[in-house]
Design a protein that fits this description.
This protein is of the alpha+beta class and 70 residues long. 10% of the residues lie in helices and 14% in strands. The protein has 1 helix and 2 strands.
Length: 70
């Protein structure tokens, strides 16, 4: 996949779920507020606003459709 902030390729083990607007700043656990990003970048960010680190969301959420097979 790609990091939602840098668009750099990341493996499954390198990424984690990030709140675009931190929960401590009123962010919700919604599809539009969650993003997969590089773990190191997420740790560096902590609960800071994106603008404090010069980051912005570079990928928009896409709704995924899953086919269930019996």
């Amino acid at each position: 996949g790609l990091c939602g902030y840098t668009k750099e390729p990341i493996s499954f083990n390198q990424g984690n779920i990030e709140h675009v607007k931190a929960r401590s700043h009123g962010g919700k656990d919604t599809f539009e507020n969650l993003l997969v990003v590089n773990k190191d970048l997420n740790s560096k960010r902590g609960n800071k606003e994106l603008s404090e680190l010069g980051l912005s969301r570079n990928l928009k959420p896409k709704h995924l459709a899953f086919a269930l097979h019996p």
